[in-house]
Amino acid sequence: MLTKRIIPCLDVRAGKVTKGIKFKGNVDIGDPVDFARLYYEEGADELVFYDITASNERRDIMLEVVRRVAEAIYIPFSVGGGLRTLEDMRKVLLAGAEKVSVDSGAVRNPAVIAEGAKAFGSQCVVLSMQVQRVPKSEKIPSGFEIFIDGARTATGLDAIEWARRGEGLGAGELCVNSIDQDGARAGYDLPLTRLMAEAVGIPVIASGGGGSAQHIYDVCTEGKADAAIVASIIHRRETTIPELKRELNALGLPMRMNW
Amino acid sequence: MIAIVDYRAGNLTSVLRAVKHLGHDAEITDDPQKIRAAERVIFPGVGAAGESMANLRRLGLDKVLAEEVYRAGKPLLGICIGVQVIFERSEENGATCLGLIPGEVKRFPPSVGKVPQIGWNAVRYAAPHPLFEGVPDGAEFYFVNSYYPAPASPELVFACTKYGISFASVVGCGNLVATQFHLEKSGKVGLKMLDNFCRWDGSAPLTASGRFPC
Question: Is B160 in contact with B167 (CB distance < 8 Å)?
């Protein structure tokens, strides 16, 4: 039986891991390779790196991080943040990432999803989306809207329609980040995740709000997610991946327990 | 030297990195001379069976692999697409494959759930194999696949995995062994299995006991 995946997410700014709340007030907390190695040793099923550097030289710093991570860990990891073109994707994959994650760049130019899927295979292309609850309207019938650029800009796109379109273009997985829940550690957005999981036939990764094993259990059962992103609770060592996995295993969620 | 066959099938550097990390000498190559001269050969890759076969034929590597590696008794490891192209044919684009071992590659039926399967799944041994030494039965490995191997005989199945259906996740015959999962991305158990291959002399293991499906 396929296990549910626990995926630590590391935001990287100018080569350092950083953590913020609601996309504001970031603090650097360490070296990405040290984090990657620690989480690999502790049984993370996969890792995600988001480059949130806001400058022109960011690509080269991030590619160096990707190369160093690829030499340190032997599990899949994906890289996202600011990827806009096929060439951006190619560089990250050649540096050693297993997957690329496209977000705002794909909203601006959806063709990049199809180009990436054709060039590298759908399994390489994760469509990541930042979603906020809004009043239901003709334009946003689900009541969930896509935002871009670090959750600052509304797009007028309905999240469920965008997810279906992304799947049709060839995305291999969806990473659904709830802006409302992000950093609050009050649990994932269960209705959003479940709507997504029922709308598409590709795996759904839930993100935003994970604060405990119970939250992960809820989003993988009631929310129908295939994987859950964790961040601040493990970065701050309030709990660890082995602890989370033991609890989830005891709750009956299929987990990878040999690592 | 271990030759990692470059047939333009996705990212091969992760396999190279893992093999080198284990302390073995390896090289990514599409040069028939180097592949002939190698002590053992790894045949990795992600992608589509049809395109992979077309590339192998174009590069003249189909005959090299069949005649000078497999039939010459050299240890040969296929990974992911590398397990699929060793069969006679694949349902993916109706491709005719290398035919090193009898059987075909089938698409997961919609009843299994999400396709492709992406993530960690348990690998249960159907029969002993030198690759499994020091790796616990039932450990999870990383899979990404829409198609699965369907060998003609249970004697070719060394391990299997359940994803809606039970399918062969390790197949083998003599000096040839192949895994549907990604050894190079499966953490320590994957590295251990990869290391076992890098030390294996290719001597034929006992045929599988026919416990498939398991």
Answer: yes
**What type of residue is B195?**
D
A145, containing H or E segment: strand A144-148
Using alpha carbons, select from B137, B69, B149, B77 the residue that is nearest to residue B108. B149
Whether residue A88 has pLDDT greater than 80: yes
CA distance B185 to A95: 15
Residue A81 in tokens? 């943040």
Check if the beta carbon of residue B161 is closer than 8 Å to that of residue B124.
Answer: yes
- Closest by CA position to A91, among listed A46, A58, A60, A52: A60
Measured between CB atoms, does A94 come within 8 Å of chain B?
yes
> And the tokens for B10?
């996705």
The structural domains of chain B, ordered by start, are 2-199 (3.40.50.880)
Chain B residues with CB-CB distance to A226 below 8 A: 114, 118-119
pLDDT tens-digit map of A200-226: 999 999 999 999 999 999 999 999 999
Q: A–B: how many Cβ contacts below 8 A?
A: 86
**Could B142 and A122 be called an inter-chain contact, meaning their C-beta atoms sit closer than 8 Å?**
no
Radius of gyration, CA atoms only, chain A: 17
Smallest CA–CA separation between A60 and chain B, in Å? Answer: 19
Domains belonging to chain A, first-starting first, are 5-251 (3.20.20.70)
**Nearest-CA neighbor of B68 among B100, B24, B103?**
B100
At B19-46, the pLDDT tens digits run: 999 999 999 999 999 999 999 999 987 7
Return the residue in A2, A38, A99 with the most chain B beta carbons within 10 A, the one to mutate for interface testing. A2
How far apart CA A230 and CA A89 sit, in angstroms, is 24
- Taking CB atoms and an 8 Å cutoff, what residues of chain A touch B143? 2
Closest-approach residue (CA) in chain A for B136: A258
**Nearest CB neighbour to B163, from listed A2, A96, A124:** A2
